[in-house]
Amino acid sequence: MINQIRKPATHKRYGAMAVLALLIAAGCSAEAPPETPAADTSTMVVYHDPNCGCCSKWIEHLEQHGFAVEAVQETDMNAIKRRLGVPENLPSCHTATFGDYVIEGHVPAEAVQRLLAEKPDIAGIAVPGMPIGSPGMEHGDTRHAFDVVSFDEAGRTTVFNHYPAIME
């Protein structure tokens, strides 16, 4: 780079000054990198079967809690789950991605918020099946007990959140 800026030997002083000026200008104009966007400004991508009504209700639940959602209709949900690494024992009707995490099924927005705040070293979280009373599966004021389960890339699971039953 210096050879490109330098003039003949009689102008060495000017060439060095030009390089110095460029370096100072570059340093002065440098800005700090932007911060990572907050969770409520990122987009969650939700893959769902176009014929499933509870998926749309779960998307509404997320949006009501400040999440931006891109809904992608997909008829081969099993292929999506395999590609994203959802363990075979944790499937539900829809699968989402948010950053590096996979979110499977009717996971409450508060569990997603906890996941994003804590940033654990896991592949994702899931609510297996379609428990009555989970977001998108509301049935009056009744809720069956269910767990949000975390999973890693090897398929190992741990309870991430527990939601007790509410019978009214």
What topology does this entry show?
Layout lengths: L1 H4 L6 H18 L13 E6 L4 H12 L3 E6 L3 H8 L9 E5 L2 E5 L3 H10 L5 E4 L18 E6 L5 E7 L5
Parallel strand pairs: 1-2, 4-5
Antiparallel strand pairs: 1-3, 3-4, 5-6, 6-7
Structural key phrases:
single chain; alpha/beta; Glutaredoxin; 2 domains; 5 helices; 7 strands; 31% helix; globular; disordered N terminus
Outline the structure in words:
With 168 residues, the chain is an alpha/beta fold. It has helices at residues 2-5, 12-29, 53-64, 77-84, 109-118, and strands at 43-48, 68-73, 94-98, 101-105, 124-127, 146-151, 157-163. The model is unreliable at 1-41 (pLDDT under 50). It starts with a helix and ends in a 5-residue tail after the last strand. The protein has 5 helices and 7 strands. The chain folds into 2 domains: 1-31; 39-163, Glutaredoxin (3-Layer(aba) Sandwich), CATH 3.40.30.
> CATH topology of the largest domain, anyone?
Glutaredoxin
- What is Rg? 25 Å
Distance between the termini: 76 Å
Output mean pLDDT: 81
Order of helices and strands: HHEHEHEEHEEE
